[in-house]
Amino acid sequence: MGPKAPRLAALAVFFVTLAACGGTATSTPQTDIGITSDSILLGTTNALSGPAVAYGTIANAENAYFTYVNSQGGVNGRKVTFQILDDAYNPAQTVPLTKQLVEQNQVFAMFSGLGTQAQTSVRDYLNTKKVPQLFVATGATTFNKDFSTNQWTLGWQPPYQGESRIYAQDVLKNHAGAKIGVLYQNDDYGQDYLKGLTDGLGSNASMIVDKQSFDVTAASPAAQVAALKSKGADTVFLFVTPKPTIQSLAVISALHWTPTIYLNSVSNPQIYMAAAKKAGAALQNVTSVGYLKDPTDPQWANDEGMKLYKTVIANCSTCKPEDGFNIYGVAVAYTMVDVLKQAGTVMTRKNVMDIAANKLNETNPFLLPSVKVKTTSSDHFPIMQEQVITWSGTGWTLQGSLIDERGTIK
Amino acid sequence: MLQSIRTAPPRYWLVAIVVIFFVGFPTVITSFQTSLWTQAIVLAIAIMGLNILVGYSGQLSLGHGAFMALGAYTSAILAHHYKIDYLLTIPIAALLTGVVGFLFGIPALRLSALYLALATFALAVVTPSLIKRPPGLTGGVQGILVRQPDPPQFAQDAFTTVTGTVMTSDQWIYYVSLLCALVLFWLAWNLVRHRPGRAMRAIRDGEVAAAASGISIAGYKTLAFGISAFYAGMAGSLFGLATGFVSPDTFPVSLSIQLLVGVVVGGLASIPGPLLGAIFAYFLPIESNQWVPSQTWIPAQITSTVKNAGPAVSYGAVLILIMMFAPNGIVGLINWGYAIVKRRLRGAGDRETGQMPPDAQTV
């Protein structure tokens, strides 16, 4: 062989490699940061301590579902690893912790981060970095409505505005002459509910005779509740978080007042109803809405979804199975796994985001029968169906059929 | 020149080493870690301000988080609504907060230590609610997003020459904060060694005696409040820049407590104290939350307590230990250790020379 042989050999190797690459490029599975051949890394921030610690169990319940999926072989052969960091419900901590998960731990996506302010604080950052901020654990309408300007962010649960539009429908149908008094929390959450109610009532918005705001740091909403009564309201809307809700229900009974009461879904889990009863609330004429199966409701005792939930939640030693937040966590984790499964071999952030925001069509076993988790290229509100429920004294009773608010929020 | 370098006291060398360390640090750590240190430095500025108030002039404040909020919101509003360059808003925010702090200092004169603590605590409690009130101005509960500036060309060039990588906004903000911190620490050092500092310390140690020596009690007390708020305002402004977002929940009551913990742990009435206190107060909650649960040798009950109760447990435990074993904070501990070493080196005979020991609190 001449002196040119090595060069020729090198050239040959080069072409063979090129051919090999060209031949396999179409079928080579695509991956992204946070994905290895046998793992998927997701991250979240949640309130494991601080004022909103009651929500912290959501992250643990989600982890319980991922543990369950991993024990069943994982997502297309990949195990899901879920990193949970505690931001104590303080947005100033959410920012560095999210940066840590994205830049240092190299997560594939952020999943189910908790809190409106906290998730707003990192929305710009994650969208600039093109990291999916999927299924944030807040019902603030902005996370679905403003998808066009934040294409890497998506909510999951029914938006607060959609929920209070259902209350508006129910009031107009069943209590047409009602004099409405509203107690709302003076933050994004309470104001979102109030806006939905006002919009839903439309030309009948004058039915609202009084609105009282409540700051979550205040000790008790007693003064506001008494003011609502003195203004002559006979229908009360409680758009406040669990603790002030329990206090308000007790105050209403202490005032010997028997208005029709509408409770928001954040505060309606049975453990809070039990707490209100203990505090002396009569709990008469209480209406709310639901979209999740209530783990304490005996009608689901033999339901397949509920049985699966009980199996899953056993993976979490600190989770109380009867806590409504846990079935929320398991249900949203189910959707996440569903999206990852659909992504198949194209495990890129772009593809996963595309499926979540535009191509979801799922029947979730932990949601009420026939609630669909659905998105299309023009609709980015995954869950928009809820059902009116009334308190029977021992549990929630489903009323009527599902109400669909899809397409009402523009 | 050479003569003065050779005879410089050791603490000058220490300062030079610390400054070089902080300047060079971002070139060896990641951009993310740099952003954590930015927050620690920002906290150090606020703690320095609180130290001037608590350590040097003897007035207790539990409400410095509120001054930080004012500074942060001033900058965010100016940058967001009036399109002023964020870096230019930093001194404006600091000055405005300083003036407000000065005005707050006037009624504070009438309050004795305990009631002053309560009044400032009330300020910290109402601040998050107060911020929500004019939603058009403050963004209400949604807060205001702060766009983090790209590094200017000269900084990018310099950084690329040293590290060979591109400078991120986080790294640029670190250097901005570091510059502010250096200037403010230098100012504080000058302040406490000169007339106002001596007057404040005299008031702290005995108001009647101070008044008898012709010191204007009211003047210096309100001045201390104003300067302290100035520091907090600048820290708040930088804090908004570093997190890229200001909202009511960013400034909870616990932030004010965190600042006070930083002052006490670092060492009251000392200049390096706030820096050490800030590093402690910022990194302890993060480390205790992530490090403790990962350790298998720590009993499960303790791990779960730390996990569920958050940083408060570790804060409490360390604070109790410091109060028991190092009541003058970390700086006091270091001085004590240094004194022992020096005594050993000099030999025991020196102990009895009858010289007055240097006042540790003047540094």
Gross CATH architecture of the largest domain in chain A: 3-Layer(aba) Sandwich
Termini separation of chain A comes to 75 Å
* General shape of chain A: globular
In whole angstroms, how far apart are the ends of chain B? Answer: 24 Å
Counting DSSP E segments of at least 2 residues, the number of strands of chain A comes to: 16
Could you say what the CATH topology of the largest domain in chain A is called? Rossmann fold
Rg of chain A over CA atoms, rounded to whole Å, is 24 Å
CATH topology of chain B: ABC transporter involved in vitamin B12 uptake, BtuC
Structural class by helix and strand composition of chain A: alpha/beta
- Tell me the radius of gyration of chain B: 22 Å
Can you characterise this structure?
With 410 residues, chain A is of the alpha/beta class. Chain A has two domains: 35-158 and 298-379, Response regulator (Rossmann fold, 3-Layer(aba) Sandwich), CATH 3.40.50; 161-290 and 389-404, Rossmann fold (3-Layer(aba) Sandwich). Chain A contains 13 helices and 16 strands. Chain A has helices at residues 5-24, 57-71, 91-104, 116-129, 142-145, 160-174, 188-201, 222-230, 242-254, 270-278, 304-313, 324-343, 349-358, and strands at 35-36, 39-46, 79-86, 109-111, 133-136, 153-155, 180-185, 208-214, 235-239, 260-263, 286-290, 361-363, 372-374, 385-391, 396-398, 403-404. In chain A, strands 7, 8, 9, 10, 11, 14, 15 and 16 form an eight-stranded mixed β-sheet that branches. Chain B has 363 residues and is an all-alpha fold. Chain B has one domain (2-346): ABC transporter involved in vitamin B12 uptake, BtuC. Chain B has a two-stranded antiparallel ribbon with strand order 1-2. The mean pLDDT of chain B is 87. Chain A binds chain B through residues 48-51, 53, 85-86, 88-92, 95-96, 99-100, 103-104, 116-118, 120-122, 124-125, 186-188, 191, 215, 217, 318, and chain B through 30-33, 35-36, 39, 125, 128-129, 132, 140-143, 145, 147, 170, 239, 243-245, 247-252, 254-255, 286, 289-290, 304, 307-312.
